[in-house]
Amino acid sequence: MIFLSDSVGARIQRTELQIAQQPTTKQPNATRAEAGKLTQEGLKLFQQGSAESLVAARKKWEAALVLWQKLGDKQWQATILTAIGRVYDSLGEKQEALKYYNQALPLFRAVGNKGGEATTLNNIGSVYDSLGEKQEALKYYNQALPLIRAVGNKGGEANTLNNIGLVYSDLGEKQEALKYYNQALPLFRAVGNKGGEATTLTGIGAVYSDLGEKQEALKFLNQALPLFRTVGDRRGEATTLINIGAVYSDLGEKQEALKYFNQALPLFRTVGDRRGEAATLTGIGAVYSDLGENQEALKYFNQALPLFRTVGDRRGEAATLSNIGLVYSDLGEKQEALKFLNQALPLIRAVDDHHGETGILGNLASLERKQGNLQASLKHIETAIQIIEALRSTYTDQNLKTQYFATVQGYYQFYIDLLMELHKKDPSKGYNTLAFNASERSRARSLIELLTESQAKIRKGVDPKLLQQETEIQQKIDAQEKLKIELSQQENINSTINKIAQADAQLNTLRAEYKELQNKIRISSPAYANIKYPQPLTLSQVQQQVLDEETVLLQYSLAAERSYLWMVTKTGMRSFELAKQSDIEELVENYRDLLENHPDEIIPVQLKEGQIAARKLSQILLQPVVKELGNKRLLIVADGGLQSIPFGVLPIPSLPINQQTGDGFKSFLLAKHEIVYSPSATVIAELRKDLQKRKPAEKALAIFADAVFGCEDRDCTKRDTRLQSLKGQKTPRIINRPDNTDVLALKRAAKNNRDLEGRLPATKKEAEGILSLFEKNSTFQAFDFAASRENVLNQSLNQYKIVHFATHGTANFENPELSGIVLSLFDSKGKGINGYLRLVDIFNLNLAAELVVLSACETGIGKETKGEGLMGLTRGFMYAGSPRLAVSLWNVNDESTSVLMQKMYKKMLQGKMTPAAALRAAQLEMLESKEYADAHYWAAFTLQGEWR
Fold first, then answer.
1. Which of 208, 228, 638, 933 is a plausible cystine mate for 237, CB 3.0–4.6 Å?
2. Residue 664 and residue 877: Cα distance in Å, rounded?
3. Tally of CB atoms within 10 A around 577
4. 239-292: pLDDT as tens digits
5. 711 near 720, Cβ under 8 Å?
6. Whole-prediction pTM
């Protein structure tokens, strides 16, 4: 595994350093007139922006400076000194620039010119920034900011905010960087500074690129590029071009990347920006390195290196040295590679580039491992992970924290793989235990922290104004959702397309505001300041706090070259090497296809292939441990594609596959084991902490079923055109996917298929069957129009031990926050209402439930995020207060789900079983039935979370 540090070219930001100009009140004379003329001539030359014109401008200003000094005009002396410093700054001669800026600063202070003083402080900060002295840069920027605000210079304030954002970005503190960029952007727009706006857009794009959000990065960078071209800023244009090129390189589109780099290079050379030129050369070299053209890569790196050294850019120098080292590694010259990497490391540390340092440490770890120096490799990767953990702690925004953590999962995978290699060489040292600990550390960290926050009740004591703002934004979101529904009901869809698009755009804006406000509420909470987040559990802690004598943990870690399994019991642990991730996930895909699509549309060849996939998958995942499992409960901590399949219907290795009635069920893993799932073992421990603290709910059950999706069979007038059946099946509990939250998509689906059935009649039968098992005064039921989002949000659901939803589900893999469950879309008067209970709504529920049942489609899946698992409804309901959930992994059938759920509740109430045991018993009973024996009908449902 090779860790490539970020291309420097993708990191440069243009800084709008102003040349302060001051009017004079003295009467003109010949000397003054000549000085003024030279000053203006210099300014015109400076504005041309080429290397030649900058040198010519400097000469004009040097001549003007002599005259201003002769006149004793300190104000103009300071202005011209700043201007000359700006020329040297632009040409990359940073020390010379500092010399002039430091002469200007006391002169501005002497004449009381706060604006000039602020501009000069900003310029000095920028020099230190480019030299890699980030803390020194911040010191000057933070001196400049209040001065600029005092004189009301909004443009200057925006520029300084932007520069502070850049420093934090370079320090690896991406959230802090975004905070300053997002303050700068509206100020630049307010004063009509398109160049400044473009600069900030480029900075934001670079941050999103670093966070792995490449399409989001392109969105901002492509907004910046035309703005730079409009104002004729070639340096800014070139900077944005190399940022775009770096994104395309990261996306694997190497020729597209070269196209942008090759557009940037002559622009940097034209304006004499040697730092930008060096960054572009480094970017081109990195592309050729990725393409395997090592000699071509070296040619470009060796051109970049002296340029970085000339301008004193140690960060760029370090990145280039690291890249040269990687090329030599690829050429087999390992010692030469180490030499360059060891030169790079102290340079990157000197400029406090912690993100870059992790990249170089990763490169060193990889190289030392290839050399057989496993202990040296281990030291480097452990240092890198310590830095990663420290950087992760700088985020308070959980979304950004999750995005960042996803980008560094490769380091954890390398660490785990290295530890397991060491274990293979010396099994007595416990390296496999360290590997398990590393695996647990790399999982579901955001969810663990969210659970801790939910227990801390961080909303208590928050400024009521913030909570009021939250309510107002939520009301606006609800209004826009309602508007979309009303527009979708109009007959002429063409007339509403633009309006729906506008509503969508407004919704996106409001959701972004809502996220930002949620973060403000969190960090302003008195309780939040006192939160101590738990550390992921170690092996011994998992054995003590999570497992019991009857439970075995099977924890999987999938990676490109090889995967691993840890089998952990209350008293022991064994580890196993498995196949590489791509081989496992190919089998997973075939197996899931068998389960999800059989029996209605599948052909015999596909069935056979699916069975073969199931057998192979079982042999990979279970063969190493099957003889040691006995009949114990299995706690599955899955990874990658394994999160999307139910282990229960994997065939037990060595037994024949048979899904028919009779004794066939004995071939399934489910026949011998109760099975539960969790994103990590630590999550179970955190759920238990919450359970121990709270009072049990007083009432038994709240159930929502038979919601109104259309009016063709109800007491209202409109025909249902919103939900689509899967051909050949009884009604599934899902809205057409993947565009299931797009009203236009729903209308198109309706237009293409007139045989639509939206109602889920079996959900009412399911609910009535379940209710019959409870005492009436301990339940709440909401059917038909009452099964509404409003009722869910307004009812005191924290009174109920079980909350059950029998309805349609929506799974949105691009925007998980839009996933949810669908409740009534019409009121009793036939008027469209917002019936989408989104993930954001679920997070805001206050539950004391022991169990939440999501009797709908795909409620247990979501967007897979590296290091966090599936981002979906499970985490929302756990945060809201439920320690366990019954959820589904694919499109479930209405009738069979109704039967399964009633059986499960009977096992819980009459058989006194735990939810996990009851679900298993109900599924085995379904397997032995005639009508629903096929696993498609019942295997989708799994129990997530606490099993006790």
1. 228
2. 35
3. 14
4. 999 999 999 999 999 999 999 999 999 999 998 899 999 999 999 999 999 999
5. yes
6. 0.84
